[in-house]
Write a structure and sequence with these properties.
Helices cover 36% and strands 19% of the residues. It has 345 residues and is α/β, with parallel strands linked by helices. It has two domains: 147 residues, 3-Layer(aba) Sandwich (D-Maltodextrin-Binding Protein, domain 2), CATH 3.40.190; 162 residues, 3-Layer(aba) Sandwich (D-Maltodextrin-Binding Protein, domain 2), CATH 3.40.190. Strand 1, helix 1 and strand 2 form a beta-alpha-beta unit. The two termini are 27 Å apart.
Length: 345
């Protein structure tokens, strides 16, 4: 994934009975493996609330959501974080969450509010975009692609690596981006042309970016175009180990598709009061300011200043591609099946 490893992980030794403790002093966050929070911010939450935060991770976002759905009404934790707009309908249809409207939502732009019943609360957003290896293109005197249309032309043959939307959340976001771009009548023919142009498909972001993409630090990959995030260039700068005046990678802004990550109080939570306090804190200035360099995504709270690495090297597209959660929910499984038939078979 695109994020830093978690510094403090609470381990749960049994699948049952993992919610907050009976005296209400512990709150359990069920989330994906990419969740991260800095130690100072974690200590601030525990100091301000008197609660102990225990973090239970469960694979990638899709796996963690599946795990939560297996225990609906008798959850392993109190709060779930990590469902995004692309999988939201699955969680809501499964009656996973209790409604809660945090007072901190007053500082969140309404464009991120995806459920009128407030069963989920937006926490961060991160755009999935094409990333390119600047040095690779410069050394060959070739202009990088400017958008989707370029990718199916012969000059970019065998240059792109993408993720399978059936197994990868950025892969699904990229598929949805092409549907938003070309519509129901045009996306399939674009993918047929991309397959003919020898696109490489892998299962997940880790393999695509760190092993196949030539622009990743330490990579031996030979593909200079990859599906990643708008925040990947600042991540390359942060992890470079030396000061850089320019990021080695760049984003193709016209291809960006918005992902919003949300949290919700799990139905049947043992510590519902603590869960509400955790939701409030995740929208607080302290947590929201921690989000960029802890998880390499963007805060949803208005007025939060981005770190210098994001100010200089990140791209926040003014008009990212989007589809409503309702449209995604009604068509997602069919689109994935059709994509599989077109690209993999």
């Amino acid at each position: 994934m695109r994020r830093l490893p978690l510094a403090l992980v609470g381990l749960c030794l049994a699948l049952a009975g993992c919610g907050g403790d009976d005296d209400g002093r512990e709150v359990v966050l069920l989330t994906h493996d990419s969740f991260a929070i800095s130690k100072p911010v974690l200590r601030a939450f525990e100091r301000e609330t008197g609660l102990t935060l225990r973090i239970l991770q469960g694979g990638d976002a899709g796996e963690a959501l599946n795990r939560a759905q297996l225990t609906v009404g008798n959850p392993e934790g109190d709060v779930f974080f990590g469902v995004d707009n692309n999988l939201l309908s699955r969680a809501l249809d499964g009656d996973l969450f209790e409604a809660y409207a945090s007072p901190e939502l007053e500082r969140v732009n309404e464009s991120y509010l995806l459920d009128e019943q407030h069963r989920v609360t937006p926490i961060d957003h991160g755009e999935v975009c094409l990333n390119i290896d600047r040095g690779w293109f410069a050394s060959r005197g070739l202009d990088p692609p400017r958008g989707f249309d370029d990718l199916v032309t012969s000059r970019y043959r065998r240059l792109l690596v993408v993720q399978n939307p059936a197994t990868s959340t950025p892969g699904l976001a990229f598929l949805l981006a092409t549907i938003a771009q070309y519509g129901e009548d045009g996306w399939a023919s674009w993918w047929r042309r991309l397959r003919e142009n020898d696109v490489l498909v892998v299962d997940g972001w880790e393999e695509a970016y760190t092993a196949r993409f030539s622009g990743a630090s330490g990579s031996r990959g030979d593909r200079p175009i990859v599906v990643s995030y708008a925040s990947s260039p600042p991540a390359e700068v942060v992890f470079a180990g030396r000061p850089l005046e320019e990021a080695p990678t760049a984003v193709v802004a016209s291809t960006c598709f918005r992902q919003v990550e949300l949290a919700g109080i799990l139905r049947g939570a043992r510590n519902e009061e603590g869960a509400r306090k955790l939701i409030d804190f995740m929208l607080s200035p302290a947590f929201q300011a921690d989000v960029p360099l802890s998880m390499f995504v963007f805060p949803v709270r208005e007025g939060v200043r981005l770190p210098p690495e994001f100010e200089r090297f990140a791209v926040v597209p003014a008009r990212p591609l989007e589809l409503s959660p309702q449209v995604i929910g009604a068509n997602r499984d069919r689109w994935i099946r059709e994509w599989t038939e077109i690209v993999l078979r």
